[in-house]
Specification:
4 domains; five-stranded parallel β-sheet; 11% strand
Amino acid sequence: MKQRYGGGHKMLKVLIADDEYFVREMLKNALDWNLHGYRITGEAENGKQVLRLAADTCPDLVIVDINMPIMSGLEVAKQLHTLHPHICTIIVSGYNDFEFARQALTYKVFDYLLKPINDEALLETVLRVKGEIAARAEMRVKLDRWSETESEWQASRFSGLVKQWLKGQLQPDQVAAALDEYKITLPADHMQCIVAELPASIAGDDEANGQTITRMLELGKKLLSESGLPWHAASVTEPGKMAFIVGSAYAIDPLLPGTIQDWAAQVKELTSLPLSAGISPASAGYGSVPALYQAAANALSRKFFRGHGSIVQAEEPFYPQDSEIRYVSVPKEKLSFMIRSGQTAELRSLLKDYFAVLADERMYTKEAAYWFASEILGMEAHKLAQKSLKLEVVRQTETLEELAKLVITLITELSVDYYQEYGTKKDELIQQSKYLILESLDDPDLTVEQLSHKLFVSASYLSHRFKKVQGVGLNEYINTLRMNKAVHLMNEYDLKLHEIAEKVGYRDPVYFSKCFKKTFQVSFSDYKRVK
């Protein structure tokens, strides 16, 4: 039994053209076409039909008689070569005429077969056609890969040149030559730089992170072009950080901030990540770019004080540099006593005041904030080591808000640990938790996470401490208080179910009713009726 062509290979399509019906039938039956990877998709009895069917069915092989009505086989071969150069054409002729064969070669005909057609000769020819088509496909794949690799190489090379330019490693004439080589128009009358970055979580060497950065860079280039600033060069300067050099023949200062804001908004929508950016002032000439880049980078550094998602323009007012750091003195003795004596509320209040002082970016630098945090945590370095934490964690924060939260959370947790270790006083953290819960019972958003945020401790730490001290889970404690308050309201006031649900922190009265029944083993309506 003959095996059919399979294995997931694409079947090649054949169009047979001859004005005589019996010749077309002979060609159809001369071979087991399917066995050899072909299927006949059409027949034509004149040259005009061949061209129409070729356009409709896109065959891989056309076998056409040289003497066709309306349009000869040679003319058909010529038209196919012009309109569908991928099609392989076999001319069939009853004439052994060298001139016909020569013309056929001119039209890139694959082969020229003489009638009567020998089955073996036909088979040998169509198998060569299949080999030719396979070779072409393989070559296309290689060319596509080469083109893609070449494009990536060129883009990478140009990106490297942009980095050199930004760092001041290229002279203006070298920049001009490079832009000319890559056919990039970049007017130098008005030039500005933008330096942008995503959070550090996306700045690693992970391939997916790299692809995200590249996509966001391309999005920025697109938005600049759409806003009337098509003249720019861009590069990923370091992991997570992107730089643009924008040039124009006219002043572009008014256009850039709005465009960068739009870019940040679209990045946020696409990735849920905040994009921060620094924008330099304007200057002229390719030689001014390194200074503009530094100005944009300095503006971006203000993100530390202003938070993720900040778009900062370089400003004239003086800001202190790291060489002129003003330090906030640390009252180590006082803080150490407060930590060890369990004065967590006072500790948090005091640390908040200090970080509020450090938030004055016209007085203090990021380095001053890092120094202050390191001094505070350094007092309890041995305790941090027990938690597998090092002081380097300070410099992993990207904003002052993150730094303040880190320090206050760690110091609070260390202070609570001292309570438990030495038993110097009742667990203040638990008392404050209870107080906040009582104050917020009507808040449907009351959660362990919300409480931990207010108390500057992690949710897992708070849950663990609460259960250890109280002997009951935090969520269960909150639910019990809510149910007890609901009973109190029912006994004291004539309120409807949805009113009581709202007063004890439930948005959905139906869900409240289910929780009530689960707690007291009686429905809300039955309880109210008995009451």
